[in-house]
Amino acid sequence: MPDQSLHTPVCSLLGCDVPILSAGMGGVARSELVAAVAQAGGYGILGMVRETPSFIAQEIEAVRARTARAFAVNLIPAATDPDLLDAELRICFELDVPAMCFFWDVVPSAVVRAKAAGCLVLHQVGSVAAALAAEAAGADVLIVQGVEAGGHVHGTAGALVLVEQVVRQVNLPVIASGGFATGASLVAALALGAQGIHCGTAFLATTESFAHAEHKARVLTAVAEDTVHTDIYALNWPPNTPVRVLRNSVIAALGPNLMGHRPDLMPREVIANEDGRPLPRYSTDSPLRTTTGDLEAMAIYAGQSTSLIDTLPSAAGRIDAIMGEARIALIRLAAMTNGVGAL
């Protein structure tokens, strides 16, 4: 049975039991993770950025083989070749995907196509302006990402301020993203007016995640100060697309020069391989289970919430932990407001 104390309206809209969404991390959020999150009562999002239609179809069917629960497919319209994007959308619509999740610049035509196909549209944004643009385009749910987030980061404001700003200015359900990985942060997000949280780092560090074991191990031992906001990992994306990663040899070599790197001027030195696909240094690809090569020099994505992640549970275990912590946080708040004091 859903926990009614934390069952927000967006849960009914999306078809999940608890207000916890797993981020559509490219490469990492494949069918095993998405199905596990959905089956545990959360809301899973498949990370299908620039994947072939045949692979997307394979992953959608793999989710459905594991669970009958609802899920979404994440695409990046603004950073995908138009012909490939058209093919990606068409296969999602042909397979009756219940929802699409878009990220980066708002592309109204993609939102309109998804709505016309009967999909719910979630749109991840990093500013008030982008939130208003997504709402105007017809999105149903906004995922508001603070600069604390791991992976690609579209804004510059912290989630504590940005989420409340957006809640005040839009009429759509808001999901908080960037630094949210625990039950206390879920309660904090609800206090800001959000209806749930969107977690990347917390689900990357689970058994079902397709991230490489070395990536997971780095997340478990890192703290917020180990993360860096930089645009050095830029190949495969447009210019001016910063990411948050963990420090490594590539970051150390930059010194203070973390920003201002142009993809068109970067060398294409191959340092790793993913299922026969060569991966150059400075690629936005992160190491996956099947990646070989110089993994240490790749993009080791992690948000500042890495400070709070020190276990490697199943996705269901992660959801249970967040919900248990949230209940404790609510009890603690009730006790304090009743004058009893902190528990």
What would a concise description of this structure say?
Helix content is 36%, strand content 17%.
Structural class: alpha/beta
Total of helices: 12
Rounded to the nearest angstrom, the radius of gyration is: 19 Å
Give helix and strand order, one letter per element, not per position. Answer: HEHEHEHEHEHEEHEHEHHEEHEEEH
Q: What is the second-level CATH architecture of the largest domain?
A: Alpha-Beta Barrel
CATH class of the largest domain: Alpha Beta
Distance between the termini: 27 Å
What helical percentage do the residues reach? Answer: 25-40%
Strand ordering within the main sheet: 1-2-3-4-5-6-8-9
Please name the fourth-level CATH homologous superfamily of the largest domain: Aldolase class I
Compile the SSE list and pairings:
Elements: H1 9-14, E1 20-22, H2 31-39, E2 43-47, H3 53-66, E3 71-75, H4 82-94, E4 99-102, H5 108-116, E5 120-125, H6 128-137, E6 141-145, E7 151-152, H7 159-169, E8 174-177, H8 183-191, E9 197-199, H9 201-204, H10 213-221, E10 227-230, E11 243-246, H11 249-254, E12 270-274, E13 277-280, E14 291-293, H12 315-337
Parallel strand pairs: 1-2, 1-9, 2-3, 3-4, 4-5, 5-6, 6-8, 8-9
Antiparallel strand pairs: 7-11, 10-11, 12-13, 12-14
